[in-house]
């Protein structure tokens, strides 16, 4: 009897999760090879702290208007977007299309519980994990994209089951994701230095 070579079906949500896990695993694997067995002990104090979830610094100075960067923090992607004045103004135009426009049911620190979901409106900081089943949404800044509908104002699109989020990470109605994308703790320690994973100093 010939062997059954058919592959088990992979749920698209799992595929998205695996993609992020594989990416981080490859980096981790390369590090393991380079340092051989004493991996943990060979880490510098700052590398060890980082692996344990210490805050991560990112310089936003060189970011262009409406550019998105993805930073790794605690093994997960964090989106940082520098929003233009036009993008910020557009956020007020589609509240009626959103499931939680005031972020009352969503997760963010108190200092980001405002319509633009940030401490400095120009900069958006989000955990880049879909609140449905954990895929990584794509950045889709083009308004009216043909495949997302003429009312699409630009934002983030989750390819696994079609959830849509605006440029504040707020979820649109009638998609599987139940809440807005999460805002992690963060603060600016200077005009250009963002510290992801740390609340503003009291
Ligand atoms: S994981 Fe299902 S829509 Fe994003």
What does this molecule look like?
By secondary structure, this protein is of the alpha+beta class. The chain is 20% helix and 18% strand. The chain contains 4 helices and 9 strands, in the order αααβββαββββββ. The strands form 3 sheets. Strands 1-9-8 form a 3-stranded antiparallel sheet, with no helix packed on it. It has a 3-stranded antiparallel sheet with strand order 2-3-4, with no helix packed on it. A hairpin with a 4-residue loop joins β8 (186-188) and β9. It is globular, with a radius of gyration of 19 Å. The termini are far apart. The model is unreliable at 1-41 (pLDDT under 50).
Give descriptors for this structure.
single chain; 20% helix; alpha+beta; three-stranded antiparallel beta sheet; 4 helices; binds FE2/S2 (inorganic) cluster; 18% strand; 202 residues; globular; disordered N terminus
SSE blueprint and pairings:
Blueprint: H1 12-35, H2 39-42, H3 45-51, E1 56-59, E2 68-73, E3 76-82, H4 85-90, E4 123-127, E5 138-140, E6 155-157, E7 164-165, E8 186-188, E9 193-196
Antiparallel strand pairs: 1-9, 2-3, 3-4, 5-6, 6-7, 8-9
Bound molecules: FE2/S2 (inorganic) cluster (FES).
Structural class: alpha+beta
The helix content is 10-25%
> Could you state the oligomeric state of the chains shown?
single chain
Biggest pleated-sheet summary: 3 strands, antiparallel
Low-confidence parts? 1-41
Ligands, ions, cofactors: FE2/S2 (inorganic) cluster
Counting DSSP H or I runs of 4 or more residues, the number of helices is 4
Name the average pLDDT. Answer: 81
Strand order of the largest sheet: 1-9-8
> How would you spell out the order of helices and strands?
HHHEEEHEEEEEE
* Count of individual beta strands: 9
Distance between the termini: 70 Å
β-strand percent reads 15-25%
Radius of gyration: 19 Å
Net shape: globular
């Amino acid at each position: 009897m010939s062997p059954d070579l058919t592959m088990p079906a992979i749920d698209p949500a799992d595929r998205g999760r695996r993609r992020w896990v594989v990416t981080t695993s490859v980096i981790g694997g390369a590090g393991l090879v380079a340092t051989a067995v004493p991996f943990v002990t060979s880490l510098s104090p700052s590398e060890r702290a980082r692996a344990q979830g210490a805050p991560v610094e990112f310089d936003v100075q060189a970011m262009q208007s409406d550019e998105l960067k993805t930073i790794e923090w605690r093994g997960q992607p964090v989106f940082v977007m520098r929003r233009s004045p036009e993008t910020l103004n557009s956020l007020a135009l589609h509240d009626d299309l959103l499931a939680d426009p005031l972020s009352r049911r969503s997760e963010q620190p108190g200092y980001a519980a405002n319509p633009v979901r940030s401490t400095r409106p120009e900069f958006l900081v989000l955990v880049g994990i879909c609140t449905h089943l954990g895929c990584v949404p794509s950045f889709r800044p083009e308004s009216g994209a043909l495949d997302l509908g003429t009312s699409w104002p630009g934002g983030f699109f989750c390819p696994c089951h079609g959830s849509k989020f605006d440029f504040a990470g707020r979820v649109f109605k009638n998609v599987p994701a139940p809440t807005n994308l999460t805002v992690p703790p963060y603060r600016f320690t200077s005009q250009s230095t963002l510290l992801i994973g740390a609340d503003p100093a009291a």
